[in-house]
Design goal:
The chain has 192 residues and is an all-alpha fold. The chain has a single domain, classed as Arp2/3 complex 21 kDa subunit ARPC3 (Orthogonal Bundle), CATH 1.10.1760. 81% of the residues lie in helices and 2% in strands. It has eight helices and two strands. The chain has a two-stranded antiparallel ribbon.
Length: 192
C-alpha cells in the first residue's frame, strides 16, 4: 500500500512540475512581441505547444495557472501586464478563451486519441472557439464603454490580422512538440 502512495505522489509531483513549466513558458512567450504591421506575441504558440507536448490535462492546467497568476497580479500577460482588469478588459476574453481551447483539446484527444490529425483538428477548433469567445467578449466590453461596434469591425481589429500568424504558430508548435515528446515520455518513465 505504501508503495502505491509513493508512486502516486511522484506522479502528482511530476505533473505539478510540468504544469508549472507550461505556465512559465506561456508567460515567457506572451512577453515576446513580433513587431509587424499588427504586432503579435508568441502566446498562442506557447498554448499550442503546451497542449501538444504536455497533453490535454496538464496543458489545460498550465493555461489555468497562467491565467490565475495574471489575475492575482503576477505580470505574465503581454507587455508584462497583469491583474483582473486585463482579464475584464476588451481583450481579456481572448486570454480566457485559451482555457476553452485547452478544454476542447483535452476532450478531443481523450475521445479520439493523440493522432496528428486529431491534434490539429482539436487545436484549430480550440482556436476558433477562442476567437469566437474573445470577439463576443470584446464586443460586450467595448459596447459598455464606447457604444456599439459592428462584428466586422471587431473581426478586422482582433481576428483577421492574427489568423495567418496563429496558423503558422500552430504548425511550429506541433513540430517542436513532436520532437520534444520522446524526451518528456522518457522523463515520465524515469519518474514512475
Amino acid at each position: 500500500m505504501d508503495k502505491i502512495n509513493t508512486s502516486a505522489r511522484k506522479f502528482r509531483t511530476i505533473d505539478l512540475a510540468y504544469i508549472a513549466v507550461g505556465a512559465a513558458l506561456i508567460a515567457a512567450c506572451s512577453w515576446i512581441s513580433i513587431p509587424l504591421t499588427v504586432p503579435f506575441t508568441l502566446q498562442t504558440f506557447a498554448v499550442f505547444f503546451v497542449l501538444s507536448a504536455l497533453g490535454g490535462r496538464r496543458g489545460t492546467w498550465s493555461i489555468l495557472v497562467y491565467i490565475l497568476l495574471g489575475a492575482v497580479g503576477v505580470p505574465v500577460f503581454a507587455e508584462f501586464t497583469s491583474g483582473i482588469g486585463i482579464l475584464l478588459g476588451n481583450t481579456g476574453g481572448y486570454i480566457l478563451g485559451f482555457l476553452l481551447s485547452g478544454l476542447v483539446y483535452l476532450l478531443m484527444t481523450k475521445l479520439f486519441g493523440n493522432k496528428l490529425y486529431i491534434e490539429i483538428t482539436a487545436l484549430l477548433l480550440g482556436l476558433a472557439l477562442c476567437y469566437a469567445f474573445g470577439t463576443a467578449w470584446f464586443m460586450y466590453v467595448y459596447a459598455k464603454a464606447n457604444g456599439a461596434v459592428g462584428l466586422g469591425t471587431v473581426l478586422s481589429w482582433c481576428v483577421f490580422p492574427f489568423i495567418l500568424p496563429d496558423l503558422i504558430k500552430l504548425g511550429l508548435a506541433l513540430t517542436v512538440a513532436r520532437r520534444v515528446q520522446p524526451m518528456l515520455s522518457g522523463a515520465r518513465k524515469a519518474a514512475a
